[in-house]
Write a structure and sequence with these properties.
The complex is a heterodimer of chains A (98) and B (517). By secondary structure, chain A is mostly helical. Chain A has three helices and two strands, in the order H-H-H-E-E. The chains are: A mainly alpha (98), B alpha/beta (517).
Chain lengths: 98, 517
């Protein structure tokens, strides 16, 4: 399995929407390489025939009563927002205009 | 500190409950005693991020008024009404800030209460405040809190464990008789072990996760933190039970926990030592205390057997793929739009994407960033099958190991943590060394089974607390309380009192209840 390098980390940081300085990328790449190396044996632990477990205690078809639940008012929902206007979240430009 | 205060803060929750019901003390006196204690020692310990004095005293005063009036309302009060509690700051509360130990949520107030908080309010248990944690519960030392580390009451230069070091330290320092924690890979049990307190991770789904800020949803579990096994059982019965707002919540009744803790008996029980979870890599003093507990259980009539769980060698690795994968998804919601911090980029175009990048860069600490990047990696095309997919298969193998082990033993036993509390800063620059603290606690989260840590004594080489972990099959939470309470009483008989009576004295003028005046 390929080791994780600085370019990988830069790409992953972009995907995860975390700006990183050059120094941070260097440090993170070094630390993650050690961690990835330590966990890679996992890929050889189980044979093809072993089913995956995504949830520790399987439950199927979980529904709740079809009644009105806890609702937040617009005011409550916006109470922690950094910016809002006219009962809506206010964000900077969605698209890069240039 | 007054003598009354001093005697009140050293009581168990069960003892406080009895005194409150008998009206020997008032709920306001009990709550004020703990608030005074917090004022006295929290400057040293830093267990609390927020103290909720006004509301806690109002709830206590309400309990006193109801008890004084008598009649049906008094009879209908919960037994723990008026017994104060601290809450890990990962659990959302109306009327108090919830930070998750992160700058990204600094000053944020939740518009709703977690289910466990609604249950505490219904039981009229005064909430003393919110306790410190590693940022978003990611860590084993509380050093990853954006608000400074919590210190271990046994040695203020050492870590109190993590992520729930605040809850464990608050209880160990007699700032609260009870606390709530969350446990994703050991965050209730490992802090319990290194602070000489009790911590329980219930069966996955036994306590609602609604309102616990999610770290890794298939592993996270809210549970009790206390100084006695019985107190944890009492608290789990308050906060547990089915919740339609958590689709992973179990409908099974968990109403036999207190009975189990009160009527413990291990005669004829089979207790399994997990071969892979002791010995090499475990501190000598930890191993000695572990063996001593085995001997006590054997003398009390239990049969000690050895079981092997060969796939546990992959548990830590699988955990560090599954958990970050879920983290990278769960923490995507901190985007600088709906709540919390927003940081604008210094220059260039002001798009939402760049605002997100700047906000998350400034709002998250190093460990959170590491885990988000690692999870994004494990889930990315080309690596998904090798990493996340393989880790999920290992999860199946771990469950099969437990199934085989529980076919040979009623409960399993191990040290909770391979070492006692280490020095602040000692492992901060070595993420992998930090991760190894949870090697014995992670398998229970992977399989969803209950695990309890209780004090097992002090390590010979450093005089610091050692934790003993008990594990039972899913839904058999009562079994660990039953064995835990027996082991606790055998050990306390040996020590001549609770382990915390041997802890150094903190604060201005406190003494252990019953000790010197």
């Amino acid at each position: 399995m390929a080791a994780i390098n600085r370019e990988d980390v830069a790409h992953l940081a972009r995907l995860a929407h975390i700006e990183m300085s050059a120094e941070e990328l260097d440090r993170m790449a070094g630390e993650l390489a050690v961690i990835v190396d330590a966990v890679k044996s996992v890929s050889e632990a189980a044979g093809e025939d072993v089913p995956a477990t995504s949830h520790p205690i399987p439950l199927n078809n979980v529904f709740r009563e079809d009644v009105v639940g806890h609702l937040l008012s617009a005011e409550q929902a916006l109470s922690g927002a950094p910016d809002s206007d006219d009962n809506r979240f206010k964000v900077p430009a969605i698209l890069d205009e240039d | 500190m007054t003598e009354l205060n001093n005697s009140l803060i050293h009581q168990s929750a069960a003892a406080l409950s009895a005194k409150l019901i008998a009206r020997e003390v008032s709920a306001v006196e009990v709550t004020q005693a703990h608030l005074d204690r917090i004022a006295d020692v929290d400057g040293q310990v830093n267990a609390f991020l927020h103290v909720n004095a006004e509301e806690a005293l109002a709830v206590a005063s309400d309990v006193d008024a109801i008890r004084a009036a008598g009649g049906e309302a008094a009879a209908g009060l919960h037994d723990l009404a008026g017994v104060p509690i601290a809450v890990k700051d990962l659990i959302v509360t109306v009327g108090q800030p919830t930070t998750a130990g992160s700058k990204i949520l600094e000053g944020w107030h939740s518009p709703y209460d977690a289910t466990v908080i609604r249950k505490l309010r219904a039981a009229k248990m005064p909430i003393l405040g919110k306790t410190n944690l590693d940022e978003f519960a990611m860590g084993s030392s509380t050093e990853h809190s954006a608000y400074g580390p919590t210190r271990n009451p046994w040695d203020l230069d050492r870590i109190p464990g993590g992520s729930g070091g605040g809850s464990a330290a608050a209880v160990a320092a007699f700032e609260a008789p009870l606390a709530l924690g969350t446990d994703t890979g050991g965050s209730i049990r490992q802090p319990g072990a290194v602070t000489g307190t009790v911590g329980m991770k219930p069966t996955y789904g036994a306590v609602s996760r609604y309102g616990a800020i999610a770290m890794a949803s298939s592993l996270d579990q809210i549970g009790p933190v206390s100084r006695t096994v019985l107190d944890s059982a009492l608290l789990q019965e308050v906060v547990g039970g089915h919740d339609p707002y958590d689709s992973t919540s179990l409908s099974d009744p968990f109403d036999n926990l207190v009975t189990a803790a009160r009527t413990g008996n291990v005669a004829g029980m089979k207790i399994g030592i997990i071969k892979e979870l002791h010995g090499e890599g475990y501190q000598a003093g930890v191993e000695n205390r572990f063996n001593e507990s085995l001997e006590l259980l054997r003398e009390a009539g239990a049969e000690i057997v050895e079981v092997s769980c060969p796939n546990f060698q992959y548990a830590l690795g699988a955990y560090y793929l599954i958990m970050p994968s879920e983290v990278s998804s769960n923490l995507a919601k901190f985007d600088g739009v709906r709540y919390g911090l927003r940081v604008l980029p210094k220059d260039g175009p002001m798009t939402i994407e760049r605002v997100m990048g700047a906000t998350r860069a400034a709002g998250f600490g190093d460990e959170v960033k590491r885990r988000i990047i690692l999870g994004t990696y494990a889930l990315s095309a080309g690596y998904y099958d090798a990493y996340y997919g393989s880790a999920q298969k290992v999860r199946t193998l771990i469950q099969r190991d437990f199934d085989a082990a529980f076919a040979q033993a009623d409960v399993l036993i191990s040290p909770t943590s391979p070492t006692t509390a280490f020095k602040l800063g000692e492992k901060l620059d070595d993420p992998l060394a930090m991760y190894l603290n949870d090697v014995a606690t992670i398998p229970a989260n992977m399989a969803g089974i209950p695990g309890l840590s209780l004090p097992g004594g002090l390590a010979d080489e450093d005089g610091l607390p050692v934790g003993i972990q008990l594990l039972a099959p899913a839904r058999q939470d009562a079994r660990v309380y039953r064995v835990g309470s027996v082991l606790e009483s055998l050990l306390e008989e040996k020590w001549g009192g609770p382990l915390l009576a041997q802890a150094p004295v903190l604060g201005s003028s406190s003494t252990i209840a019953g000790g010197s005046k």
